[in-house]
Amino acid sequence: QVQLVESGGGLVQPGGSLRLSCAASGFAFRMYAMRWYRQAPGKERELVAGITSGGGSTNYADSVKGRFTISRDNVKNTVYLQMNSLKPEDTAVYYCYATIGSWGQGTQVTVSS
Predict the structure, then answer these.
(1) What separation in angstroms does the CA of 73 have from each of 12, 77, 80, 108?
(2) Each residue of 4-17: b (16+ CB within 10 Å) or e?
């Protein structure tokens, strides 16, 4: 069965960095685009970043452009989200999504001093 397991979340001070990972299994990872979403308390889930199956094209929400970088390793079946210059408004649960139609369980990111 399809499994997506996120890791790398935690508590970080404003201006800090985190790298999220999403390890995929149970499907042909290299054939599918991947995305990161986030959901803050009381808000709807929003798209943060996406990457094509081969990794050649990426897209970002305006709120994270220039600060976040999505990447993937099709040998390790893993997608990453490098988050720099973090702000308190980046606080949310971050979810990995495979365009086969599957979600990870989420990882909490809290940006606070």
Answers:
(1) 25, 6, 8, 23
(2) bebebbeebeeeee
- Local confidence band at 45 (pLDDT 50, 70, 90 cut-offs): very high
The DSSP call for residue 2 is -
**Hey, what are 86's tokens?**
């973090």
Give CA–CA dist 26/45, Å, rounded: 25
Q: Which of 42, 43, 31, 29 is nearest to 96 (CA)?
A: 29
Helix (H) or strand (E) holding 4: strand 3-7
pLDDT in tens, 47-56: 999 999 999 9
DSSP states of 14-27 as a string?
TT--EEEEEEEESS
Task: Round to whole Å and give the CA distance between 67 and 15.
Answer: 10
